[in-house]
Automatic annotation (TrEMBL):
<dbReference type="InterPro" id="IPR036640">
    <property type="entry name" value="ABC1_TM_sf"/>
</dbReference>
<feature type="domain" description="ABC transmembrane type-1">
    <location>
        <begin position="47"/>
        <end position="328"/>
    </location>
</feature>
<dbReference type="InterPro" id="IPR039421">
    <property type="entry name" value="Type_1_exporter"/>
</dbReference>
<dbReference type="Pfam" id="PF00664">
    <property type="entry name" value="ABC_membrane"/>
</dbReference>
<feature type="transmembrane region" description="Helical">
    <location>
        <begin position="161"/>
        <end position="179"/>
    </location>
</feature>
<feature type="transmembrane region" description="Helical">
    <location>
        <begin position="301"/>
        <end position="320"/>
    </location>
</feature>
<dbReference type="GO" id="GO:0005886">
    <property type="term" value="C:plasma membrane"/>
</dbReference>
<dbReference type="GO" id="GO:0016887">
    <property type="term" value="F:ATP hydrolysis activity"/>
</dbReference>
<keyword id="KW-0812">Transmembrane</keyword>
<feature type="transmembrane region" description="Helical">
    <location>
        <begin position="44"/>
        <end position="63"/>
    </location>
</feature>
<feature type="transmembrane region" description="Helical">
    <location>
        <begin position="267"/>
        <end position="289"/>
    </location>
</feature>
<feature type="domain" description="ABC transporter">
    <location>
        <begin position="274"/>
        <end position="575"/>
    </location>
</feature>
<dbReference type="GO" id="GO:0005524">
    <property type="term" value="F:ATP binding"/>
</dbReference>
<dbReference type="InterPro" id="IPR003439">
    <property type="entry name" value="ABC_transporter-like_ATP-bd"/>
</dbReference>
<feature type="transmembrane region" description="Helical">
    <location>
        <begin position="185"/>
        <end position="205"/>
    </location>
</feature>
<dbReference type="InterPro" id="IPR017871">
    <property type="entry name" value="ABC_transporter-like_CS"/>
</dbReference>
<dbReference type="InterPro" id="IPR027417">
    <property type="entry name" value="P-loop_NTPase"/>
</dbReference>
Amino acid sequence: MRFLRAPEYPLADPLLPDGSRGDPIEPPRTPWRLLAWLASRNKGLAVAALITSGIALGSLPVLPYFLTGAVDNGLREHDWGALAFWAGGMVLAGFATAGMIVWSHRLTVYWRMDASYRTLQLATRKVNRLGDELRRKVTTGEVVSVGATDINRISWAVDSLSPTAGCVIGLIAVGVLLFNTSVALGLTIFIGVFVVGLVTGPVLNKLQDRQEAYRERVGDITGRASDIVSGLRVLRGIGGEARFTASYRQDSEALREAGYKVAAPQAWLNALGEGTPAILLGVVIWIAARQVASGDLTPGQMVAAFGYTSALLLPVHWLIGCTYRIIEGRVAAGKVCELLNTPERDAPAEILPGPAAGAELHDPESGLTLGGGELLAVASADSEQVARVFDRLGGYERSEARFGDVPVAGLDRDELHRRVLVADHDAYLFAGTLAAAIGARDGRDRVDLAIEAASAADVVESLPHGLDTELDNQARTLSGGQRQRLRLARAVAAAPEALLLHEPTSAVDSHTEARIVDRLAETRSGLATAVATTSPLWLGRADRVAFVQGGKVTATGTHHELAAEHPDYRALVSREEA
C-alpha cells in the first residue's frame, strides 16, 4: 500500500497562499502557455516523470541488441555460455524496463492529478473573485463544461507529455541502433518518420479547429440543458416544454455533426499510428534481407533490425494518441483562459470607512434615493431598469452611487453587502437543510421571525422534518411561490440596514401577498426597504413611491398622490389592478 500512496507535493503554494507566502502567482492567459505553466509548476515531479518515461520507452529497442548477441555469439557459434549470458541480459533488461514503465506511469499519474488540481484551483478562485458578476459575464454552460470536461482534458494532456518524451527518445534510439547496424536501415527510419511528420501536421491543425468547434457546441448545449432543467416547471406551466425540447434536439444534432467532423482527422491519425510502423517494418525487413543475402549483415543483425523496428509499434502508436490528447488539452486550456480572462470589477484604490447607521442610499444616474427607515416602492413598466438601479446601489455595477457621503465603489465589499442587500426574486437556493438555506447561523429566533414575515410557515409545516428537511439545489421539489417566499425569508433573516427587493411576491396569490406586505413592513420598521413592484398592495402600503421611466425617477409621492397626478402611473397601476 505504501507504493500506492501519493507523495506530498506542494500543490497549493502558488494558488492558495497564506499570509506568509505573499500574493499568488498569476498564470499565463494563453492556451499553450497555460498548458506549459500547469505542467511545470512542480518541476521535480515533471523532471522525474520525463526521465523515467525516457528510460522506460527509450530502453525498449535495447532488448533486440541482446537478441543479436544471443543469435550471433550463442546460436551460430554453438557457445552455450555466451547464449546464457546474452539471454540472461535480455531477461534482466526486460524486468528493468517493465519496472521503469510502472514507475513512470505512477509518477505520470501524480503529475496529471497535480495539473488537474491546479486547474481546479484557478477556476474556483476566478469564480470566487467574480462572485455576483459571474452570471452576467459567463454562461452556465461554459462554467459547467470547464469543471466537467476541460479540467479532465487538461490533466490528460499533461499525462501525455511524459509518454511523448519517451516515444521521441525511443524513436531516436531505434534510428541510432539501426544506423550502427546499417546506414541504409537508419536512413529508412528517419526518412519514414520525417514523412509521417509532414503528413500529420495538417491533420493536427484540422483536428484542432474541429475540436474547438465541437467544444463550443458542448458549452452551448450544456447551457441550454441547464436552463431547461432550472425552468422545467415554468416551461410546463406555459406549454413551452415541447418547443424547448425541439430546440434541444436541434442543438444535439448539431453537436453530433461536430463530433463526426472531429472523428475524420482522428481516424486519419489512428490509421497513421497503426499503419506507419507496419510499412516501415516491411521496408526494413526487405532491405535487411537483401543485405544478409549480399553478406553485408549477419542473421543476428537482421533479427535485431526486425526487433528494433518492431519496437517502433508501441512508441508510434502512443505518440499519435498523445498528440491527439495534447490537442484536446490545448482546446480545453483555451476555454479555461476565456474564464480566467473574464474582466473583474475594479478594486477601489482606497477602502473608505462606511457611513453611520441609517444613512441614505442615492443613485445619481436615476435620481433614486432610499432614506433610512422608510418603505419605498419603486414602480416601473420595465422592471429591468429598476434592477439596474438596485445593482448600482448594491455595488454590483460601477457607478457614482453613494451610501451617505461615501461612494459605494469605495466601500469594503463585505461591509457593503452586509449592510445593503439586493435580493432577486430568482436568487439561488443552495442544497442543505431549510434552516441553513434561510440562515440558521443567525439563530432560530431570527429564522422564525423571517419565516413569519415572509408568510412561509405553511411551507415549513408541509415538509416532513420542518426546518431540518434536506432540500436539493434550488429546492425544485417546492412550487415557485414557495421558493419565492423562502428567498424572501432568507433576505429578511439577514437583517441588513437597507434591503432592496426585486419583485418579491410576483409568484404568490393576492391574499398571501397582502399578509407579506403587512408583516414585512412591521418587521422592517426602522430599517430602509425598497421594493421594485407595480402591485397596488405594495404601492398602497409604502411610505413613498418612486415612479421610474426610461431609467429615471420622474415622480415621487404617495400612491394616491401619483395616481391622481400622473396619467402614466395611473395607467400602469390600473393594468395591475385589472
